Amino acid sequence: AKLNFYIFVPAFIFVNLYTTKIPLDMIKVVAAVVLIFALNLIIAKIYTRTRGYDEGYRNAFANSIIFANTGNIGVPLITLVFSSPPFLINGTTPFLDLALTAQVMVLVVQDTAMNTLGFYFAGKANTNWKESVLKVLKMPAIYFVVLAFVFKTVPYDITSTPLWPAMEYAKNALVPIALITLGVQLSQTKFEFKNQDAYISAFIRLLASPLMALPVIYLLHLQGIIAQVVMITAALPTAVNTALIAMECDNYPDFASQAVMVSTLIGALSLVLVIFLARLIFPVV
Q1: Which of 96, 109, 111 is nearest to 32 (CA)?
Q2: Which of 174, 202, 208 is nearest to 264 (CA)?
Q3: What is the pLDDT of residue 191?
Q4: What are the Cα distances from residue 272, in Å, to 34, 142, 199?
Q5: Between vectors from CA 175 to CA 25 and to CA 233, what angle results, nearest 5°?
Q6: Which of 62, 70, 240, 260 has its CA 20 to 30 Å from the CA of residue 176?
Q7: What is the pLDDT of residue 138?
Q8: Coarse DSSP helix, strand, coil percentages of the chain, rounded to the nearest 5 percent
Q9: Numbers of helices and strands, H then E, in the chain
Q10: Residues of the chain with pLDDT under 70
């Protein structure tokens, strides 16, 4: 978990952000992600407060809803969707670059929030707010976002430096190490398949979230490929890192692992429906 948070996640964010050309239209994508994030957080808070859960459990439930697996699943999924028919034209993928740019923006916002607010929520129940904020400030991911934008303004290509291959190796290590760490946690977790909160979390994450994304997409006047990406990423399963954060902060790690597992399994089916609806509702002109 520490390797992920202190090395692999920052490298993943930095490399993707530095190497991706970001048009001004992507500001709308950032706004959409933030609004969907806020709507999910409101639903999580309302549900858990009506159930009378303690603060730690409320925050663990909120993390399972507001943070999606935009890296491990999102990036390869968007690549698959927009490099296959009907987007595969004469052996080329003319829409893939735009789709991946939008996906990277979603990933950056989600990962930055996860490594700040996610840690704050998870640690808040067991520590005071000052210690929670201090823990957030120790997470390097947010600083690497700033560094990526700074280096993008420098008239020098850092990909030609000897350090760049190491950054790419660290970036590529994120997915396998995250999955191995989750596997360790799952092996130590006693699953309660009657835990209704895990299924409610999955329902909100996989189905309610993309439905909430629709008014946001219309509000921001998103269309075509970008609208499809926003809707699809709103329906991704719970982020693997929510379980790792729960482990790191000792905040209901069993529930966090169950939420990841349930949403990932059900997401294999629900994503097919969401992708179909996204193509139907937001056709590419």
Answers
A1: 109
A2: 202
A3: 66
A4: 24, 33, 18
A5: 35
A6: 62
A7: 77
A8: 75, 0, 20
A9: 15, 0
A10: 125-129, 132, 135-136, 182, 185-186, 188-193, 285
